[in-house]
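Posting this for the archive.
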Amino acid sequence: MTTDPAWALAEHVCGVSFAMLPKSTRAATRHDILDTFGCLLGGSGAPGIAELDRVLGKWGGAEESQVILWRRRLPAPQAALMNASMAHALDFDDTLDHGGSIHPGASVLGASLAVADRLGSVSGADLMLAVALGLDISCRIALASTLDRGWHRTAAMGVFGAAAAAGKLLDLSVPQMVNAFGIAFSQAAGNRQCIIDGALTKRLQAGQAASSGVLAATLAREGFTGAHNIFLGRFGFFELYQPDGYDAARLTDGLGA
């Protein structure tokens, strides 16, 4: 039986250290983080954000992670939802233009900030590493999905990058990381009808991916399991989400470079 690419991706995420990141990758990641923060700042007052804050604020919960600019702390998944929704709200966030058509930074940084804040002892290098790896995973899945079937790629594919970044910060083992990807797969969602209809759910979907990534990695660390044949299984991501429109080799081509 062929090993699902999820295992190679998990080994990649778990095995890369900050020292292994090329200088160009570090520079690109810094730029991406700064750009995403700028978009988050601009999107903090966008329609839908105050409504999200009212709902999540009323629910409350453990004050684990900061909602940027809103002077509120929430459980990590909810803080990730808020921060990523703000970052994607104005649609000026980073874009993989060449074949992937995904905005990976909002969900990856949203998940990373929430987990780092919850842990409380994460270095800048560790945060940058998690973001770099999360961006890598999100973009690889988007590049491998060669047919636009109407999924909101930022959400439906970005959830895996968010899980990778959160899992890296939580120091997951390879089997745990595969479980995190499997749990993320169970939550992979988001469609582009919201774009056609001008609905606020477009920004929510990026937040949803960040929140689901945090939940997936956290559950995996506790021993919760997800599917292991995530991409090439009979009911895996490509069969269900991208039939007749994928190139699985793109997931692992040049992995580590």
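The chain has twelve helices and two strands. Strands lie at 65-67, 72-74.
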